[in-house]
Design brief:
The complex is a heterodimer of chains A (133) and B (66). Chain A has 133 residues and is α+β, with helices and mostly antiparallel strands. Chain A has 4 helices and 4 strands, in the order H-H-E-E-H-H-E-E. Chain A has one domain. Chain B is mostly helical and 66 residues long. Classes of the chains: A alpha+beta (133), B mainly alpha (66).
């Protein structure tokens, strides 16, 4: 049964996106980009987006929706590589912290405080170094 | 002569007991070593999944807006 749900969940997701059209997802990305620039939303080492402080319902919904889509992608990869979703998400988190956080944007490692990226690279968690990050 | 052998056996037993005690004492630092091993396992997972994670980001840029 779980297998069936796993198989069809992405299809159901696709069907929903097809019904909604591509525009909402793009609009969500624009909302997130703006919130990142404003220091309200940032990448986390766990592979998901996080929210700093209180934000509008629109931003919260966009972040929740994107994190659900990320988890679906992580779950798919974890299934193909016989890994846990958490590990896949954390390894992806190493990459996003390394290469997809711009100077001035916020990020968070573990349960630590939100930090703002400076001119230099982010001090990644120790385990990220194994991949030559 | 047999007496000396007995004493030798006693000494051997005492040495073994001491050695045994030594083994138990050595166990104390095992904990940090275990933690290091756990980190190593995690690092192996990182190495194994790194390219897949990179591909996931490259193939789904809409999931990682900047």
């Amino acid at each position: 049964m779980t297998r069936i749900i796993r198989t069809f969940a992405p299809l159901a997701g696709l069907a929903m996106f097809a019904a909604l059209g591509a525009a909402p997802a793009q609009a969500q990305d624009a909302v997130i980009s703006a919130a990142k620039a404003a220091g309200q939303v940032g990448e986390q080492a766990d592979g998901y987006l996080g929210i700093k402080g209180s934000v509008s319902a629109e931003v919260r919904q966009a972040v929740d929706a994107l994190n659900i889509r990320r988890r679906a992608a992580y779950t798919d990869l974890a299934g193909r590589r016989n890994a846990t979703v958490q590990d896949v998400a954390a390894v992806t988190g190493c990459q996003t912290l390394k290469s997809r956080v711009s100077q001035g944007q916020i990020y968070r490692i573990g349960n630590g405080d939100w930090q703002t990226k400076g001119a230099g690279p982010i001090a990644l968690p120790d385990y990220c170094a194994a991949a030559g990050n | 002569m047999r007496q000396w052998t007995r004493i030798g056996q006693g000494a051997l037993a005492a040495t073994l007991a001491l050695a045994g005690g030594g083994c138990i004492q050595v166990r104390a630092p095992e904990k940090p070593i275990e933690i290091n091993l756990n980190v190593k396992i995690q690092q192996e997972v990182v190495v194994r999944l790194q390219k897949d994670a990179q591909d996931l980001i490259n193939n789904n840029p809409e999931l990682f807006p900047q």
